[in-house]
Automatic annotation (TrEMBL):
Pathway per the UniProt entry: Carbohydrate degradation; glycolysis; D-glyceraldehyde 3-phosphate and glycerone phosphate from D-glucose: step 3/4
Name this protein carries in UniProt: ATP-dependent 6-phosphofructokinase
Principal subcellular localization: cytoplasm
Summary of the function given for this chain in its UniProt record: Catalyzes the phosphorylation of D-fructose 6-phosphate to fructose 1,6-bisphosphate by ATP, the first committing step of glycolysis.
Places the protein is found: Cytoplasm
Reactions accelerated catalytically: beta-D-fructose 6-phosphate + ATP = beta-D-fructose 1,6-bisphosphate + ADP + H(+)
Family label: Belongs to the phosphofructokinase type A (PFKA) family. Mixed-substrate PFK group III subfamily.
Residue sites binding substrate per the record: 126-128, 163, 170-172, 222, 266, 272-275
Record-annotated active site: 128 (proton acceptor)
Organism: Nesterenkonia lutea
Ligand binding (ATP): 10, 72-73, 103-106
Enzymatic class: transferase
Length: 343
């Protein structure tokens, strides 16, 4: 078979590992040929691709980012998009199937295309870990490691100056990054989109820690909405897809803490540093296993399905199951973390 791969949506460490394992498995096990579509769905729509021989993927598993580039191009909203045009492009270039590597938006497009007759399977990717039907997505572990390391550094400088340190991490709709990195770094308060918390409560936790001579660490996800607010803070315009560009809640929380408690406070926004760099060992292995399973799904002609992690096994699931809402942090997980807040 001649198979095309694409990476779409936000980038993250581990994308190249998926590409590598799919290509090597396909060539060695099935005698397949591979191409890589450039810039996500745009590459499929415009027939813009590169050949992916075996030598092109050597050593890729350790490299961050994606050699194919990415974009947020929608397969149906593009002027030349839609299943009919994409089917013509695939036929014109003798491409038998597509492996789409991406998050919710990418996989929603893949599901719709599969329903319309395009031979496509998916690989789940998001640092937010917000996709249902899979226990974890690759990129998440790397984001946690980066954020935890940054928070460890913030704590040492905070202790030196007896300041409250606030770290803003990614998490538009869910707080998995904030929860895991905050717990790993021993944060004294973790603020996530799924749970409204008043600033009075946050300040109480901060004062409890400060009164013991410690430097409080507060972790806040970019999509956190305080108890008395109506929506997430988004004062940075819009993304290309029309979504509000979040960010700034960490600075707002910092100013609130300092004003209400009188404790000198500083804020750090980690931003896209969480997406960059080389993947952790865990993410390299998970991404590699996803790529192998996705290639097998192509040969099973399991269109409209994706590889997923269940426990320690990589299984096949319908994309519809993965897209049935976002995987939010359960109340019991947040309650577990909250035991350690403040005192």
């Amino acid at each position: 078979m001649r198979i095309g791969l694409l990476t779409s949506g936000g980038d993250c460490p581990g994308l190249n590992a998926v590409i590598r394992s799919s290509v090597l498995h396909g060539i060695k096990s099935y005698g397949d040929e591979f191409v890589g579509f450039k810039g996500g769905w745009r590459g499929v729509i415009e027939g813009d691709y590169i050949d992916l021989p075996r030598q092109s993927v050597r050593g890729l598993s350790r490299e961050g980012g994606t050699i194919l580039g990415t974009s947020r191009t929608h397969p149906y909203n593009h002027p030349q998009g839609g299943p009919e045009n994409m089917a013509k492009q695939l036929k014109r270039h003798d491409i038998d199937a597509v492996i789409a590597i991406g998050g919710e938006g990418t996989l929603a497009g893949a599901k719709r295309l599969a329903d319309d007759g395009i031979p496509v399977v998916g690989v789940p990717k998001t640092i937010d870990n917000d996709l249902k039907a899979t226990d974890y997505t690759f990129g998440f572990d790397t984001a946690i490691s980066i954020a935890t390391d940054a928070m460890d550094r913030l704590r040492t400088t905070g202790e030196s100056h007896h300041r409250c340190m606030v770290a803003e991490v990614m998490g538009r709709h869910v707080g998995w990054i904030a929860l895991h990195s905050g717990m790993a770094a021993g944060a004294h308060a973790i603020l996530i989109p799924e749970h409204r918390i008043s600033m009075d409560q946050v300040c109480e936790w901060v004062e409890q820690v400060h009164s013991r001579g410690r430097s409080p660490l507060v972790v806040v996800a970019e999509g956190f909405i305080p108890e008395d607010a109506e929506e997430a803070l988004a004062g940075k315009g819009e993304e290309e897809d029309g979504r509000p560009r979040l960010g700034g809640i960490g600075d707002w929380v910092t100013r609130q803490i300092e004003a209400k408690t009188g404790i000198e406070s500083r804020n750090t926004t980690l931003g896209h540093i969480q997406r960059g760099g080389n993947p952790t060992g865990y993410d390299r292995v998970l991404a590699t296993r996803f790529g192998i399973r996705a290639l097998d799904l192509v040969h099973e002609r399991a269109w409209g399905h994706m590889a997923a992690l269940r426990g320690t096994e990589i299984v096949k699931v319908d994309l519809a199951e993965a897209l049935d809402g976002l995987k939010a942090v359960p109340a019991e997980r947040y309650d577990e973390a909250q035991i350690l807040f403040g005192r």
